[in-house]
Design goal:
Blueprint: H1 2-14, E1 23-31, E2 35-52, E3 55-71, E4 78-93, E5 100-111, E6 126-138, E7 144-154, E8 165-175
Antiparallel strand pairs: 1-2, 1-8, 2-3, 3-4, 4-5, 5-6, 6-7, 7-8
């Protein structure tokens, strides 16, 4: 009986749902006109959970390192900058048997140089980012995560000009 209990606990741990565990991710995105972003990052769960309308709501830290590449004026060619981000994010999970989620976040980003494209130039290296996204878990333990995100970055009018940039992003994350 004791061996059966140990095996049962082990099997449950092995097949436990991974939706609220740390991740490593790869993300690619494009902006409105001529900018592209490639991002690697990690999410770290916060010790917080609640329920809204019978659905679990969790939170995590999203830490990222991105390379943004944009075409500038013809005589200047393209430019790539590094961008580091830290974004607290809330995630609204569908009921446990359904693998969908919706998330939103607001955080800060610091770039190695001022971002500029053909028709935009940021005035600060520190900017805020907000995003909304929808995603889907796959795998026996829901260890794979796929999502599409819309993200807006700007300096919140700390300094002018403040043109902002909007990215559409596709993310793959692996839960551990």
């Amino acid at each position: 009986m004791c061996a059966l209990t140990v095996w049962s606990a082990s099997a449950q741990a092995q097949f436990a749902d991974k939706r609220n565990s740390p991740t490593l991710y790869l993300q690619a995105g494009v902006a409105e006109r001529d900018a592209r972003a490639l991002t690697i990052g990690s999410t770290i769960p916060m010790d917080w959970k609640t329920y809204w309308w019978g659905h679990a709501v969790t939170a995590h830290w999203d830490m990222s390192l991105s390379a943004w590449n944009s075409d500038r004026m013809e005589q200047e060619g393209s430019r790539t900058i590094a961008v580091v981000g830290l974004v607290p994010t809330m995630r609204f999970h569908s009921k446990s048997q359904y693998p969908w989620f919706v998330e939103a976040g607001l955080g800060g980003y610091v770039s190695s140089k001022l971002y500029e494209s053909r028709d935009k130039r940021f005035s600060t290296a520190f900017n805020f980012g907000t995003h909304i996204g929808v995603g889907y878990f796959t795998g026996m333990r829901r260890e794979n995560e796929w999502s599409v995100r819309l993200e807006h970055l700007s300096n919140a009018s700390i300094k002018r000009p403040n043109p902002g940039e909007n990215f559409v992003q596709l993310r793959y994350a692996r839960h551990f």
